[in-house]
Amino acid sequence: MWAMFFLRLVPRPLVVQKQGMTNSYNIRTTVASDAAAIAEVQVASWQSSYKGIVPDPLIEQLTIQNRTQAWERIIPALAENGQGEVFVWTLDNRIVGFASMGPQRETELRDMGYVAEVTAIYIVDAAKRRGGGRALMAACAGAAVARGHRQMSVWVLTENWGGRGFYESIGGQELIQRESEDRTAPIDETAYGWTDLQALIANNPQ
After folding, report:
1. CATH number of the domain where residue 48 is located
2. What is the domain count for the chain?
3. pTM as predicted
4. Residue 136 falls inside a structural domain
5. What is the 8-class DSSP label of residue 98?
6. Are the CB atoms for 146 and 160 separated by under 8 Å?
């Protein structure tokens, strides 16, 4: 959840749809016009989930404007790369979460067989505990399987107990930890992994 996004967009229609008594949602691949909405989700998530974990100056420097500008550059670039995908979750026609997957960037995890990685997953507080996080993770797992990968990992802030509980609830196993190099403002991370991506896909609420 700490890492960002260097992947590919493969335009595709709906991945998951569900109708509930009061809500409807779908998971789909990202399009260029999603940049501002993705930025809003990311900034809101940092402000709510990382308060007290990440130093305030780091949270404050992440703005909707600079993240929108970044996504406006990143999304078109993704179309040139076939190594990963980004998905958004829309609830009642509004983007409330997103996730991205791509090739593993941590050598130790890659050597352990985790050749795919969820590089980012963020959901606004109001939309949590409605199944969208599971659906986003399942979409990332499906994208990994489509690329021939059999295992997948994700990094989460070590002190983000809510995030860690979520990964454990969908079968994630704690793998390794890494410490921040900045000991004045340590932001340590823990990696979780899945060896059975088909089981993770089965968690997709449909």
Report:
1. 3.40.630.30
2. 1
3. 0.84
4. yes
5. E
6. no
